[in-house]
Amino acid sequence: MAHASTMKIPVIDISGYLDGDSEAKANAAAEMRKACEEQGFLQIIGHNVSPEVVQNFTDTCARFFALPLEEKEKVSQAHSPCFRGYERIGGQKLDELDEDASPDQKEGFSVRRPKPLGGFLQGPNQWPESMPDFKKAYMKYFDAVHALSKAVFRLMALSLGLEEEYFDAFAADPDGLCLCRAHHYPPSPPDAAGTTRGVGAHTDFGALTLLLQDDVGGLEVLHKATNTWHHVPPVKGAFVCNIGDLMQRWTNDRYKSTMHRVISPLSGKDRYSCAFFNDGGLDMTVECLPTCIAPGAKAHYGPIQVKEHLVNRYKQSYGAAGTVVQEAVA
Questions:
Q1: Which residues, listed in sequence order, are joined to residue 210 by a DSSP beta bridge?
Q2: DSSP-assigned beta bridge partners for residue 42
Q3: Contact assessment for residue 25 and residue 17, using Cβ atoms and an 8 Å cutoff
Q4: What is the overall mean pLDDT for the chain?
Q5: For residue 38, with 0-12 CB atoms within 10 Å meaning exposed, 13-18 middle and 19 or more buried, which class applies?
Q6: What is the value of pTM for the model shown?
Q7: CA-CA distance, 210 to 49, in Å (whole number)?
């Protein structure tokens, strides 16, 4: 059940911070602290990802998803040892609350930084031959949102009372596991009455997510205190920002990784979104931040390597829908 009253997703303008205004920086860090401690969700405006880059990317993705299925299947993740490319409807099941839930009713296209084939989820991307402009539009968007994620990590460091550059090595790691995944949600059948899960209830695996959503809506966040679901209203030009399980662990549960889902649109319109996950360097070890534990207290979690944490979560999520995730070998 979704309710509208007790939970409000804050909208934070980071333009002053990006311009170097010290007062705006302090205010934005304080707003981020409050949002991450209370909801784990916020929306960011005043960023420097250009509307033209976003529009070109979303138009290109919509053209790709409109291709015949057999054309899209040519770049299926089934052909990729590092799990990149097209993902059919029902390829993933993220619902953590309902074992009987159907697999997610969305299709997607996943891209990471191209790497030599080798480590976990590392290797080359796939691109549709019939759309030569797809790669350029996609990677331009990837680079712009990756840059924004690095700025958000800096703001997060300030919000935690750390040096502004504290997360730089994690967020900017050239071998880091950033994922940019475009989604298309077909409209629900009229008799589904708002029950079809575009994406089942889940928390994100990693550290930081930046989501671009169109104006159709459907994203909902769980308010833990009242166990009620709340819509995240689309804000033009905004990125929805949320933290994942890795950051909750890193902050010793101070910052919340919040359960969320997508209800497939009943508007009769297709919904498009794109999630950018900056999950940092695979070889880095995450352990309780110094500002997130009282003197003499014991950390809630022991140290863990980023790779170990992510491997466990990927296998759980994709395995539930019958998709096998394994380490690519050169």
A1: 241, 276
A2: 241
A3: yes
A4: 86
A5: middle
A6: 0.89
A7: 12
